[in-house]
Amino acid sequence: MDDPSWSSYRPSDLLGAFDVTLSQDQRLLKFHLGGQSLIPHRLVGEEAISRPFCYTLDVISQRGDIELKSLIAQPALIEIRQADGGYRPLSGLVDSAALLGEDGGVYYYQLVLVPWLSLLSLGRDSRIFQDKNVTEVIEAVLQGHEIAKGRYRFDLRRDYPARSYCVQYRESDFHFVNRLMEQEGLFFYFSHGEGDHCLVVTDSVDTCPAVTPQAIRFHRQAATEAEDALTQWGGHRQQQPTRVSLATFNYKQPRHPSDIAQDTIRDQGHLPDTEVYDYPGEYYYPDHRRGERLAVNRLEALESRAKRFHGAGGARQLQVGGHFTLTQHGQHERGDDSEREFLVLGLTLHAENALPVSAHLSTLPGSLQEQLDQARRAHGLDLSDKGSSLHRDDYQRAGTGHYLVDIETQRLCLPYRSSLDHPRPVMGGPQTATVVGPEGEEIHTDRLNRVKVQFHWDRLGHHDAGSSCWLRVSEPNASAGWGAVFVPRIGQEVIVDFLEGDPDRPLITGRVYNGDERPEWHSNGLLSGFKSKTYRGGKYNELVFDDATDQERVRLNSEHAKSQLNLGYLIHQHGNTRGDFRGTGFELRTDAYGAVRANQGLLVSSWGQLGANGEQLDMRPAWRELQSAWQLADSLSDSAVDHDAEALASRTDLHKASDDAQGRHGSADSAAAFDGSSATTASKGGRGEAARLKEPWLQLASPAGIAISTPQSTHLAQGKSLSVTASEDINLAAGKRLVASIADRLSLFVQRAGIKLFAAQGKVEVQAQSDEMVLTAEKKLSITSTEDAVHIAAAEEVLLTCGGGYIRLKGGDIEIHAPGTIDVKGSQHLFGGPTSLSYPLDNLPETEPSNLDLEHLYGNGRPVPGARYRAFLADGSVRQGVLDAAGKATLSGLPLGGVQVEYFQDPREIDKRPQAWPVKVPIKPTYATTSSDTQTAVSGSSRDQGSPPQAPSLLQSPGWTGGTPGGRPNTSGASLSSPGWPEGPPLPTIPGDIPSALPGRVGQQARTQLEKIAQEKLQEQLPGLGNTELSSPGWKGDVPTRPTFGDLKDTPHAQDTDLTSPGWPGGSPKKRS
Questions:
Q1: N- or C-end of the chain: fewer Cβ atoms within 10 A?
Q2: Beta strands 229-237 and 210-218: pairing type?
Q3: Could you please report the per-residue DSSP string of 4-54?
């Protein structure tokens, strides 16, 4: 500024000088911004890989009225003259503009140029990406900006997996995109063209272009040199960790090892072993391969920083993301080409146009003058002692200008990865969201009971199954096959927390009510519990706890058939309303069916245990009653035997019932209650003994009595015997008939007052159809007909005897003999010729052996061919055989009584090897089959088709030893068929669709009436048959699956019992004429 040639210039002269040199041609820097006439003066630029560039430019203009806002966001172009005379473009957008001041009619402006990518940092967004890989997510973000379209490209060498769930939460698009690229090992640089710049995203240094020219000398910079060079060059090494280790937790494979470790393979000198161990959160990588890649990305970022090279000079072709070859440097000439190739990671440039007015412009505050002075001093272009520049002529006269560049590089042969400089956002705390799912659904979940939600901040979600990923739900207890399950329903508001604050890892931790989803029990605070909702319905299940004072209550309720268990103080409850008093205690009720099952025994008692004290099966009151009943039955049985009557054989079972009620179980040593700090210690409590049933009895006990009532029928079925013992009376009252059908014998014994048998109307018939009848009295035997006759008739002989005299009627003869006087008196005595009286005698039916038809079917109605069976007959004999191809067989010549049939496994389902019949007979032969879906039909028939129909054999439950209990004819299950049925009208049948044809109680009453009519008609048509019940199999039992080898042959009927079995009643049947 002290040059005498310029000291006399006035402002107007300065403008004139400026107008003369207005052209930018052949200058170091050119600048283009729309139609503005702006001349670049100074330039400071910062570039780095994976960072937006920033160029600050001081420009001058002779106009001071340029609106700054007209410059903002406008595309601008800087051109830097190269050594060959061409220009290298640098394009960007004006990020800021400032008017620094005016001097001599020259206006000084400062502009800052940035890439379009920087504009993405101005906004902030929150959104969710699902099932997209990193490039798809980045592209979706960039495509949301009009300025980015067509201004980016991907140049990748690796494939990238899809991310199931990726969240941008309250962060700028710029921060979000950088965060993803850093995690995946991507980096970017900018490629500049004549009119624009392009963002290039890559994952390999091999895709980076070479600068032009590629070779750059390490040489002194001089104005006489034809090529640019680097004048300074040096390396820098920094210690880095030698290992990177990662760990994560994959809840889908919780036991799968997830640790990943990667060691450096670069020679970094004698470094101590140091490790970077990080747990970046759950589900950071799904598998080992993915984890290795993420760990390698981090390790390569460390290895890249371990050795860097720095240079400076005037090489104007250098740009970030480009690589060059350094020549003429002694330290790099000895190795191969990889020793001389470098990738530019960052640069800082300082440039100044040599304008004629430069020396006469004041240094304005905020200009780049100070930064350029510092750069010149750093590059050895310091001012002289007199304050003038060593290269003053270059800056004060029109020349090529000044250009300085500082660069940071790494070897091109090393991978480059950006460090994790953009951390993920940390969620400030839990949020609430709404459970969503497909339209029309109420529940949308998966195998892990996860659900999907719509976050309140998600403006792009559609409140459907695509609004989020599957979110796990925290339950009060959760483990393998056990724990609590309450799946949130669509529409519920849930509390969502985030593991380690990671927006990509949401977890549902609770549920809350709101204005639309209100609680059922509210306001008073007395009611608590759980209430569900029927899927696609208005019903529910619930568990209610009522904590009203002195009215404590629990209700377990299912709206299906109003099935409830009510405990405590029972009231009517409707929603939130506590209603009227209903009682106290407990109530188990349902509008449908009910069942109570106890595998080892059941006690139903109204004997009290106040205060919930005492043992579970305290049966002392019941035992006393059973013991008293047994003593009475035993004494009466002994008395019956003394009088030649039958003993009460079932009294032994009564004694067993009494004895089995005295069982005990548990440990003999009692222990005090343990309140230990560990489960093992606390488990030592609960010792001692308690009452139990020795066998699975059903015990009913009551101090006031037991009443059984029904408007219909009551049925008692026993496999062995029925014992009824009363200390006082047994009274039977029947409105119509008392019918008993007994297979073996009827024995009545009265100890004191005798037996009375009266028929107010109708006949009294007593028959012994196959044996004698004996009437014996210690005193008088009276036979009286008060209004008619007494007839005594016999087929062979009638004998009246007393005191040695007798009257015999036999073969048409009458014998009257007496050891004493025969006194015959009458008003007349007629002794004529022979005559006779033909008196009809009843033709008594015979008991004939019967047949039994077997049929074994699967549940689908298909037969079980070739199945083995074994039948236990009433006389104790056993028959066995094999079913035919239709699953059928016939047993003939069976004695009267029950038959138990056992079926063995389907032979097609076992090994094809020689087999023999089981030698050991099962203790409880059953009808059970090899699969639960088989069924059996059995039919009986008479052997003699000409004789009157006989009762078919009875198929009963396990343990049956004989006898035919009465009952109505079988109407379902077993089929009854016989070739000996008499011809006539068909037997009445009961329609099976009565319950479905007539609703409710009406159908039940109609069926009952039809059953009574059918029974009466059956008795009229088959007077000798009686009501014999043929019950179909249905009991449970063990099924032999591996027959025992023995001496028995595999031949049907090989072990059939002879018809003259000792169990046959009355011996061999007699043939009647």
A1: C
A2: parallel
A3: HHHHT--HHHHHHHHHHT---TT-SEEEE-TT---EEEEEEEEEETTEEEE
Token digits of residue 571: 């009231």
746: closest CA among 718, 773, 719? 773
Distance CA 966, CA 1022 (A): 15
Query: Which H or E element spans position 814?
Result: strand 813-817
The amino acid at residue 697 is: W
What is the end-to-end Cα distance of the chain in Å, rounded? 162
847-887 pLDDT, tens per residue?
777 889 999 988 788 899 999 999 999 888 999 999 998 99
Strand runs (DSSP E) across 183-255, as ranges?
Answer: 187-192, 197-202, 210-218, 229-237, 243-246
pLDDT digits (tens, 9 = 90+) for 212-238: 999 999 987 665 666 889 999 999 999
Burial of 1069 (0-12, 13-18, 19+ CB in 10 A): middle
Q: How far apart are CA 811 and CA 808, in angstroms?
A: 10
Distance CA 441, CA 541 (A): 20
d(C-alpha 111, C-alpha 32), whole Å: 12
Could you tell me if 41 and 358 are in contact, meaning their C-beta atoms sit under 8 angstroms apart? yes
Is the CATH number 2.30.110 carried by domain 4-119+334-411?
yes
| 3-class DSSP assignment, residue 526 | coil
What is the distance of C-alpha 97 from the center of its chain?
64
DSSP state of 394: H
Give Cα separations from 567 to 582, 587, 589 (angstroms).
11, 7, 12
Helices 620-642 and 651-660 cross at an angle (nearest 10°) of 160
CA dihedral 757, 761, 767, 773 (to 10 degrees): 40
The answer to whether the CB of 857 falls within 8 A of the CB of 837 is no
Beta bridge partners of 570: 583
- Which residue is it, tokens 């002694």? 330
Contact residues for 731 (Cβ-Cβ < 8 A; gap 6+): none
Give the integer Cα–Cα distance in Å for 1068 and 742: 19
| The pLDDT of residue 358 is above 80 | no
Mean pLDDT, range 691-713, rounded to an integer: 91
The number of CA neighbours under 13 Å toward the Cβ of 307 is 14
Q: What backbone torsions phi and psi does residue 556 show, to the nearest 5 degrees?
A: -110, 115
- At residue 892's C-alpha, the angle toward residues 903 and 1063, to 5°, is 90
794 C-beta neighbours (distance < 10 Å), count? 11
**pLDDT tens for residues 555-582?**
999 999 999 999 999 999 999 999 999 9
Beta strands of 725-883 (E only): which ranges? 797-802, 805-810, 813-817, 850-858, 868-872, 878-882
Q: What is the DSSP letter of 641?
A: H
Q: Where are the alpha helices (DSSP H) in 260-340?
A: 288-306
Residue 344, token pair as written in the block: 């530019």
- Tokens 């700054």 — which residue? 68
The answer to whether the beta carbons of residues 994 and 1010 sit under 8 Å apart is yes
Cβ-based neighbours of 76, under 8 Å, separated by 6 or more? 31, 32, 33, 91, 92, 93, 94, 111, 113
CA distance 162 to 133: 4
Name the amino acid, one letter, at 288. Answer: H
Residue-averaged pLDDT of the chain = 81
pTM of structure: 0.69
- The DSSP H or E segment spanning 681 is helix 679-682
The answer to whether 690 and 609 have CB atoms below 8 angstroms apart is: no
| Alpha carbon distance 721, 657 (integer Å) | 13
The string of DSSP letters for 860-891 reads: TS-B-TT-EEEEE-TTS-EEEEE--TTSEEEE
The amino acid occupying position 503 is P
The CA angle 124-127-128, to the nearest 5 degrees, is 150
Interacting residues of 4 by C-beta distance below 8 A, sequence separation 6+: none
Domain map (residue ranges) of the chain: 4-119+334-411, 229-313, 527-592, 852-912+925-982
CA-CA distance, 233 to 318, in Å (whole number)? 14
Choose among 256, 246, 245, 244: nearest CA to 281.
246
